[in-house]
Amino acid sequence: MSRGRRDVWNLHIYNDVTYVHDNEAIAALMRRVKPAGRPHTRLIPGCVITTVSWKHWTCLFPQHGPGRKHERVIALEPWQQEIVERHPGPFLRGLFHSDGCRANNWTTRRVGGELKRYDYPRWQFSNRSEDILGLCTWALDLVDVPWRRSGRWCVSVSRRAGVARLDELVGPKR
What we know:
By secondary structure, the protein is of the alpha+beta class. The chain contains 6 helices and 8 strands. A hairpin with a 2-residue loop joins β7 (about 150) and β8 (about 155).
């Protein structure tokens, strides 16, 4: 978000130009949140920036503030927690589509003296903010998706049932 003239805030969503469906959905969602708003887009190489201006963006995103998000507190307000508890899927979709990925992982095991390779899908979410990682794991717990911290800044979902549940909730970027 950036502050414009007369204390009007501009919400900018940056997304890869290849995700046409998601870019259309972003503009439609902005119109739903602010019905009188008219989202406009700008193209920069490989990226679409969708923007809507409104004085009340900071009311909806009180976490916004100066500085790096991993160096300041990021916590949901009680009204935001209630929404996520009722609708954890869209919250997880936003997290994983912005700072996550679905990838194929592999490992090798010796079976009967022979080395075998096993390929399997997994979801990963990466962020330097402990608060945001905590929000991700909290939301995963809400939908009974088993997770683990696979690195200092990474949460992984590798169990088959958990991957299937996230596939259903998050879906591919389109």
